[in-house]
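Hi V.,

You were right to ask for the full record rather than a summary. Here it is.
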Amino acid sequence: MKFTKMQGIGNDFILVEPGATELDWSGTAIAMCDRRFGIGADGLILVLPSEKADVRMRIFNSDGSEAEMCGNGIRCIARYALNRKLVKPRVGAISVESIPGIRKVSLSYDGGELTGIKVGMGQPEFAPGEIPVKLTPGTAVPVQDYPLVIGRNKLSLSF
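Predicted structure:
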């Protein structure tokens, strides 16, 4: 299997164009992302064609769970797609399809050289019901200094 390893601001990813190959991508991500016996990465990104955007991504975390999206991962797939000429930038931007929808990726150039990639991540969610976390009913939004106890450690959760 051919792959490319890329990193964006400290997150590293394995990018694969699967074509018609069907695999257990969750299990494949676990094996490939293993830092001792695999390639080692934070996640596996499948680079796929899209009917709605310039390119589509599926991303699997190193534990095999499928993520909705990842900002650094979208930046990597944008660079990959540009380098491989899978997409043509339109007015300094391309679009990437992910589970929550299409994200615009803005491209900055200096003298014809790509110097920056920015992603519009959409509106952040702060309501406990919109984030996979169980809190005491009636918790104020945004959550600030919510006590979280893990074992003998007491943490203060804010979002």
